[in-house]
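Subgroup meeting minutes
Present: P.N., E.W., G.H.
Scribe: E.W.

1. P.N. recapped why we're keeping a running log of single-chain structure predictions: easier to compare across weeks, and new members can see raw inputs and outputs side by side.
2. G.H. added today's entry (304 aa).
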Amino acid sequence: MSVSLSWLTRQELAAFHGQIDALARRTRYPIGDGSDHFTIDHGDDSGAFFESLGDEARFVVAHDGDRFLGMIAGARRTSVGGPAGPLETIYLGDFKVAPPARGTGVAARVLVAGAAGVGTRPEAAGWRFLYFAAMHGAGGDVSRSFRGRLHPGRLARPLGTLALFFVAPAVLRALPAGGPAPTALPGLDLGRQGARQRVVRTTGRKDFRLHSTGLPWRLAHVPEAPAAWGAPLGDWLRRAAAELEPDETACFAIDERLAAPIGWLAAQGVAVGARCAVYGVPHPFLSRAAYGSAAWVHLPTSEI
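Output recorded in log:
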């Protein structure tokens, strides 16, 4: 197998769309105790979702001629940040390796090429913080493949684990008023800076399908960080529910370290549906004050 590595734009990535889409449809993400799972469909444009997350997006693709072997995407953007204010960040995601290329070193080569590009490509210049999110599966998350002292993935440090919730609108509307207040603890919000809608949909760019039903799973994301709810948890979620359609499922994230809101939801019968770890790599010259005092981390589920 001859492996070439290319740094592509969204438009250039389209040449591999059919193969990327087929791989995505076979990749399963567990829900809850693993009794169900979902798959992801990026529609007719494999790069549209990731490009929508930042000001610049590029895709490192490993291929053998026109045969797709693996990829990772990077989006340059300004994140809300933490105690020291906004951060210029690079959000890595969409890490995929085709089954025939697994165990052949392709994954490490894609990561090395991505890391090299972060350090040398002009469109990546000026970043202060690099991060990625990894869904938990039965065997852990993608970090289990970071083996060997020289593996680039070992530069990443865990920032926190997000509890993900998937809740029917009727359940949210039935929540009692009140509940835990927005947290006053300092946190690190890695979502894109800018005004957020109360509910965000990724229809057409990132659609979901449930294994148990074989039908589309219509997620409506409630994106705000726990410090920005603007109301106690029960009121915040009830307001979001008013904007949902009956066949949609509300999706939102809370850092597991914030025990009060997660415990309050559990007492109302709302259980954690999945977990997602967030990893970060600070720039060598970034002061730890910009992120190190964070008691929680946040990434909107619409951006995971």
